[in-house]
Amino acid sequence: MIIDMPSTTANAVAKRLVDLRDIHGAVALGRVLTLVIVTDEQHAESAIESANHASHEHPCRIVAVVRGTARGSARLDAQIRVGGDAGASEVVVHRTFGPLTAHPESVVIPLLLPDAPVVAWWPVNAPLDPAQDPLGALAQRRVTDTYAAEQPVRELGARADAYTPGDTDLSWTRITPWRSMLAAALDQVTCEVTAVEVEGEEFNPSCELLAMWLADRLDVPVKRSLSSGPGLTSVRMATSSGPIVLDRADGSLATLSIQGQPDRAVALNRRDTAELIAEELRRLDPDDTYASALRFGVERLGSGGFKSGSLAGGSAGGWAEDSEGSAAPAVGSRAAAFRAGVSGAAESASSADSAGRASEAGASDAAASATDASADASAQEPAKGADKAPATPADLAKRVASK
Questions:
Q1: Is position 54 within any domain?
Q2: Is residue 163 part of a domain?
Q3: pLDDT tens-digit series, residues 361-381
Q4: Of 299, 300, 337, nearest in space to 318 by CA
Q5: Do 62 and 51 contact (CB within 8 A), yes or no?
Q6: DSSP character string of 224-286
Q7: Is the bond leading into 130 cis (omega within 30 degrees of zero)?
Q8: What percentage of the chain carries pLDDT values higher than 70?
Q9: Is residue 37 located within the same domain as residue 137?
Q10: Which uninterrupted H or E stretch holds 187?
């Protein structure tokens, strides 16, 4: 049932809802919260549809505020949807015009359910400080979506600066399955994580949030690398017992690889907005984990990749050097040791391929020739016990490579 109420007031809408319950019995009372959607005309129907699907899990009253043009006189056009047109909820759509667009709270407050929590959701065009927004101030939970912003990664910085307990973002909700799977993978092995690389498409804030969460919780250097997507494509963790890789190339089915164990296929589908909203409505307390990851800071993430073979070998790897040969900056308490490379014990355990590549990258053809000549000359001298000349780094690299 859809009831249109053009040029009306919020009080008239509230009275009509009571009439529908008393006379027609069309509106039930078992609502657990009020969900306020603030959007524009273009995204209104898709947002309402997602909220309707979420209402099957969380029966609620949905109040959608659709902002129209600010020019002209103040006017409120309302629409009430109940029954089959509203899922397991009741939907009130308020289209505001003129000066009323600047005061949306005046048409929402009369429709708030008594003694029930309020959740505010901005599918697009969220305010920089949701808690200071007139509608955000009414809500216990404020849901935004940085993926819909023009500059998503920069938007994360604004969210961190203005964070208030109760804020959350759908870009964070999208990575819940990834976080659960990575935590479960680390529970299966006894190891120390030494470095992480998160790969995903550019301008995807979920990739940055996952990288910041890993850096914040594991206190290790985390690199953010790019791929063609869709969304997040892989997470690689270098550990003391071998690499752990969660790879999702097609956006639906992922492969979890743990050294010493068979590869496993896991479902990591890209979820739609209805599922994301339903998840966010399951908890109304502040998300401290999100706050900690958000405040870690995008600028503290590296942008390079692992050295070739560092993950495959399972040893403490390092970062690839940039085009000028200087190591990319790393973060975390182990950053200095990580940039300096592996310790002597790790070097003795490195593979022959790694040693060969290090030798090739560290010396030019001319330097290699000079080293060979020096080695030939040293080989012709008789051994003199303690007086024997010590082996050079190039000699050691050759010996390891020959083995």
A1: yes
A2: no
A3: 343 343 344 444 444 444 444
A4: 337
A5: yes
A6: EEE-S-SSEEEEEEEETT--EEEE-SSSSEEEEEETTS--EEEE-----HHHHHHHHTT--S-
A7: no
A8: 72
A9: yes
A10: helix 176-187
